[in-house]
Amino acid sequence: MFGGLIGYAVGHIKSGLPRWMYVFIIFGSCSIVMGVVTLLFLPDLPSTAKFLKEPERIIAVERVAANRQGVKNRHFKKYQAWQTLYDPKTWILFVMATGAQIPNSALTSFSSLIIKSFGVDTLGTQYLQIPGGAVQFLSLLAGGFICTRFPNTRCQIMTFANIVCIIGASMLVALPASNKWGRLVGLWLCYFQGLGFSMSLTIVSSNVAGYTKKQLTGAALFTGYCVGNIIGPQTFKDGEKPGYHSAYVA
């Protein structure tokens, strides 16, 4: 949401550096500041959390031990590595992460191109991304609330979010070019993919026990994330612009 607003504001700059440089300076600076804040204030372990009192730290560590989740350590356990390889969840999460990130590259790197194909100017492509950000923001809040309020519903929420994303992409494929508003709403619905992917991250943290296995499963999921983001941009073919039919199908 704020990205669209900042992009719209940057679009009005008429002097100084090229406008695209301001985008990198603004967001790069925010990322650096948050990186430093995270490094300084985000604890690695319950036992090092400064905002917990000593008895609370003991309770937090014992709760992790009772869940058999594993406390951070540097000892590589070979049997857990083999468990990771043989566990179907590892490969299901890998495929899910790959699939979820194919549309992600379209929604992040190429959303301006998609919206521009609807016949709006460059500034319009910026403010028309704001509703998509709102959809993603609100869906994440709603999904987190539902899964907290109703235990064991994460897979159902994940499935729902992915189905909505598929429906949105289907609208982009099936609706005629003249139906610009319908296609725009379809694009905004694709932002539900963020909820589906976020739910898969929580499955790694909660449903995978053993520190070595958890780290390797997380690495497999992140590899799928990268593979999906590599595949996504390849579906945008110059010969298909401004329609980009293959990208919508993917």
Automatic annotation (TrEMBL):
Pfam families: MFS_1 (PF07690). Signal peptide: none annotated. This is Major facilitator superfamily (MFS) profile domain-containing protein. It comes from Paraconiothyrium brasiliense. It is found in: Membrane. InterPro entries: MFS, MFS_trans_sf. The keyword Transport applies. The chain crosses the membrane at residues 20-42, 91-115, 127-147, 159-178, 184-204. Gene3D superfamilies: MFS general substrate transporter like domains. It is a multi-pass membrane protein. Keywords: Membrane, Transmembrane, Transmembrane helix, Transport.
